[in-house]
Every structure is written in C-alpha cells, then in structure tokens.
Design goal:
Blueprint: H1 2-32, H2 37-57, H3 60-77, H4 85-103, H5 115-129, H6 158-185, H7 188-211, E1 213-215, H8 217-220, H9 223-234, E2 238-243, E3 248-250, H10 251-272, H11 276-281, E4 288-297, E5 300-307, H12 314-323, H13 329-333, H14 337-342, H15 365-374, E6 378-384, E7 388-396, E8 401-409, E9 412-417, E10 421-428, E11 433-435, E12 438-443, E13 446-452, H16 453-456, E14 475-483, E15 486-492, E16 494-502, E17 516-521, E18 527-531, H17 533-543
Parallel strand pairs: 2-4, 9-18, 13-15
Antiparallel strand pairs: 1-3, 4-5, 5-7, 6-7, 8-9, 8-16, 10-14, 11-12, 12-13, 14-15, 17-18
Helix pairs in contact: 1-2, 1-4, 2-3, 3-4, 3-5, 4-5, 6-7, 9-10, 10-15
Length: about 550
C-alpha cells in the first residue's frame, strides 16, 4: 500500500508541475491581453483541478493557495475584479508560491505559505465584496524562491510502450532459444551468461509491462455520472458501489473493454433493474443496486458487474433459442443452465422487448464478447430470476505475453492459453462414450464433448469424427477448456509444461485456418501453434 501511495504522490507532483508551468505561461499572456476569455478559462480550469487533486491526496497547503487563486480569477472572469498592477503582482506571487510548495512536497522542511501572501490574496478578494478599491492600498510587496526544477517523471505515448513491448517479446523468444542451446552444449560460461540473460530479460519484461499499467479507477470513476444520466432517463433509482479502483491493468486492455463495460452497465439499468414501484411489490428496496468491482487473481484481472434486478428468465431464453433458429426444441431441453445463458452472446440474440435511448437497438452482447475475445479474455454470465445478474470478465494483465499450457500431438507442439484452461484430467478410455459422431464424457457431473486432437489435425474440420475406436491407449490426457459458459475436452498425446509465450500472427495461407490463433517459437527452436479455443468450442458445441 505504501508503494501505491508513493506512486500516486509522484503522479500528482508530475501533473502539478505541469499545471504550474502552464499557469506561469498563461498569466504572462493574460497580462498582455487581460480580456482574453479563453486564457482566463484555462487558468481557472488548471487551478480548479490542482485544488481538487491536492486536497484528495492530502496536500492542504497547496489546495488552500490554489483555492484562493481560483476565487480571484473567478472574480476576474466575471469582471468583478480589475486586472490592475496591484492584482497582477499578487497573482504572480501566488502562482510562484504554488510552484515552491509543489517542488518541496518531499522536503520535510517544506515552507509554509507566506502569511503576507495569503493576506494579500484575501485583500484583493475582499476589495470586491467591499465594492471599493481602498483595500488594495493595503497590499504589501511580497517577493519569492525563484528556483528552476524539472520533474523526475515523464509522460510517454502509449504507442512507444507498445513498440518497446513488442521488442521485449522478440527478446524473450531469443532468450529461451539461447537457454535451450546452453543446456544442450553443457558449457559453463554459456550457462552463466544465459542465466544472467534470463534474469535481466525477465526484469525488463516486467518493467515494461508495469509502465503500461493503469488503475481501473481511471475508467470506473467515470461511471457515477453515467449511471446517474441513464437512471434519470429510465426514471429509476440506482445506487452504484465501486470496489477495487486501485487494481492495475494494461492500459490498452482497459481501452478495449471500455465500450463493453458501458454496454453492460446500460443493459443492467435499462433491462435488469426494475422501476421503484415494481421493486416495492417484490419486497425489494425501491433503489436498485449495482456493484462494479475489480480484483486480481495471479495474472488475471477479474471485473464484475452485479445488479439486484429481475434477473434473466431461463424459460424465455430457451424459447428465444428455438424461435430464432439456433437449436430445435428437443435439443434446447438438454442444455444446462450455464449453456442456455451462453446464447445471450450469439449475434442477433436479444431479449429486449422495447427500444430505449440506451439499449435495444440491435447491438447485442456478441459485441461485448468479441471485444473480450480480441484480447484473449473471456466473459461469463450468471443469473437468478428475481434476484439479479452478474457479468464476470476475466482479462489478461498484458496483451503481448500470455501464460499458456504446452502440449504435444504426434510430433507437433501446441499451446493453449491459460485464460481458457479449466483443468487437466487423466480419463480412462472406457469412460468415453459415442453420441452420434462425437465423443462425450461425464466429468465432475457435467457431460462434456471430447475432441480427439490427433484426428482433428489430420482431417478436414467438416470430416472430423470422434469415434472411440481410433483412440490409442487405455488412459487419455484431457485438457478441459472453457469459453462462453461452455466446456470442451481436448485429448492430447502428452502434456509438457506451463510457460509464458509471445504470440505472433500467422502468415498466409495458414492464417485462414480458424482453429489456430497464432504461433510462437519455443526455446528448442520448435514452432508451436496456438489453438483458438473460441473457434474450436463454437464449432463442436454447435455440432453437439
């Protein structure tokens, strides 16, 4: 927590010094052209932001001086205070004092704001309330600690960090190759160098990734106003609780899921939360409750949006699945509840019965799922009729480097992203059963479709058959993957290890094969294809 507080303080200092530089520049411009409304508005904005930020982090001296200056410039904007020589001098002194206070926040002997300066600021303000210029005659000359200083922090464009992270990704691939070679040659000096290379590359990787992290609060804190606006339009009462604003995530990932989170929030208010009179009849509080939360789970950030609204009616969803032609009626009856809810993410699927200003315009949850798929994350929905709905997003902390489970099928190597890996089981072949042209197994009380990867990789997708007679061995290694509330078992020849990988896009013509999401290079120099769990799961669940 202390490290986080230090980070906040450093960010504040960097921003505050920028504000100070801008204020010094703008007030000089204003002295030349006192009627410039645009410059006055910008000075007022900078002082207001500085006051609020300083107060939030506990620098009350800075906040107090900024507040007095803000008041003075507000009077100048309203043409209640003249930009005379006496006033200009006091305002310049006040801004200089801000710079001194900001530059010394880390100094245990930081100076207090000058009583003379504070008195001068009060005098120029009181001269307006007294409606006389006589007070200005009491202004005393005050001179400050012109010291020039530069911030220890710099702002970097995100595209520069993107490029740097890509280079780190390439370095990781070469590092793993060198480590593998050093083990093969069994040379002491090479082992020592490769070991050192591993350490510094790992440190470089985490340093670059850390530089890209931002607090989810930078997005979450925009929602109170959004929720208020939607609630007013929908004529509903909403209480929003935000948890975990200080959880950190890659800035690009947060940017990509911004629209998705907004879409889910609109749906929760428009379709999830009932109106006050309806809630009272159901013995609920008239005010609907929504929780927006974030938490860390190792290399994953989990975002949840929870509402205590009417929930999702499973029977309505089952009817819609049939009516929209996704499945025949007899097949829908066999679906588990979690599988039923997964159809909410299918293109064109919606339960909205009316169009509002914020939802029901044909933009469904498939847009949300596609955005999360694009960053290698996953989303699930849980709901109980009359109680509420929870949308959970599992997001990677980084886009470029991802954890994966490596496996082997025949002579080839494959990687399955850990984000989609549920579990690994050793399953006796006798427990696999044929249903039509597919294999299924009962695993922990769930009937799961099983895919025999050895056969899948050797035939066209449409010709795949999971006949049990083709299996080799009495026991099968099965990797259970999950996507969109659905599970699938993948039979592999052998399990290798868990490893961070750098995923690269496939080149033509193999980039058209939908079951592959990319490629990576292992330390041994072997090419390793990354499986697209989403594409494989969609295909086989539809066949089942």
């Amino acid at each position: 927590m202390k490290a986080r507080e230090q980070e906040y303080k450093e960010i504040f200092i960097a921003e505050a010094l920028e504000y100070y530089d801008a204020l010094s520049r703008h007030i000089s411009d204003l002295e030349k052209n006192p009627q410039d409304e645009q410059v006055l508005a910008e000075i007022f904005r900078l002082l207001h932001n500085l006051k609020a930020n300083a107060k939030a982090i506990g620098y009350l001296n800075i906040s107090d001086v900024a507040h007095k200056l803000e008041t003075a410039f507000g009077l100048i904007r309203n043409k209640e205070l003249s930009f005379s020589d006496e006033v200009v001098t006091v305002l310049f002194d006040g801004i200089d004092m801000l710079g001194e206070l900001i530059g010394n926040v880390d100094n245990p002997n930081s100076p207090e704001p000058s009583p003379a300066l504070l008195r001068n600021l009060d005098i120029i303000v009181s001269s307006v309330s007294e409606n006389t210029g006589e007070e200005l005659s009491k202004v005393q000359k005050y001179y400050t600690s012109k010291n020039l200083s530069l911030s220890d922090l710099i702002y970097i464009q995100i595209k520069k960090l993107d490029h740097l992270l890509n280079l780190v990704g390439e370095l990781i691939i070469d590092r793993d190759r060198i480590l593998s070679i050093s083990k093969e040659l069994d040379h002491d000096d090479l082992k020592s160098v490769s070991s050192h290379l591993y350490r510094i590359t790992e440190e470089l990787q985490f340093s670059v990734m850390d530089a890209r992290l931002v607090n989810v609060g930078s997005l979450f804190n925009k929602f109170p106003r959004i929720v208020r606006d939607i609630a007013v339009a929908e004529k509903k009462e909403i209480n929003l609780e935000i948890i975990g604003q200080d959880i950190q995530i890659d800035r690009n990932i947060l940017q990509i899921i911004t629209d998705s989170l907004l879409h889910l929030m609109r749906n929760a208010i428009s379709h999830g939360i009932e109106k006050a009179d309806v809630r009272k009849k159901q013995k609920k509080s008239p005010q609907g409750n929504i929780i927006l939360s974030a938490q860390n789970d190792r290399d994953t950030v989990i975002l949840r949006l929870i509402d205590d609204g009417k929930g999702i009616d499973q029977s309505e969803v089952r009817k819609a699945i049939v009516n929209r032609g996704f499945l025949p009626a007899d097949a829908v009856e066999d679906l588990r509840d979690t599988e039923v809810l997964s159809y909410l993410f299918e293109p064109g699927f919606s339960l909205a019965k009316e169009v509002t200003e914020f939802s029901g315009r044909g933009v469904g949850l498939d847009v949300v799922k596609n955005a999360i798929d694009s960053i290698g994350g996953r989303i699930r929905v849980d709901s109980q009729k009359g109680i509420g709905t929870t949308f959970t997003m599992y997001l990677p902390t980084s886009i470029a480097v991802k954890g994966a489970l490596l496996c082997q099928v025949e002579e080839n190597y494959y990687a399955i992203p850990l984000m989609h890996t549920d579990s690994v089981v050793s399953l006796p072949s006798s427990e696999l059963h044929e249903i039509g042209d597919l294999l299924v197994a009962d695993i922990k009380g769930e009937t799961i479709t099983i895919v025999y990867l050895r056969e899948l990789f050797n035939v066209d997708l449409d010709q795949y058959s999971g006949r049990k007679s083709k299996l080799e061995g009495d026991v099968q290694n099965v990797i259970i993957v999950t996507y969109n509330n659905r599970k699938l078992g993948l039979i592999v020849d052998s399990l290798l290890r868990q490893q961070d990988i750098v995923i690269k896009a496939l080149s033509k013509p193999v980039n058209t094969i939908e079951i592959y999401a990319g490629v990576t290079l292992l330390g041994s120099g072997k090419v390793c294809l990354v499986l697209d769990v989403a594409a494989i799961t969609r295909y086989f669940i539809a066949r089942r």
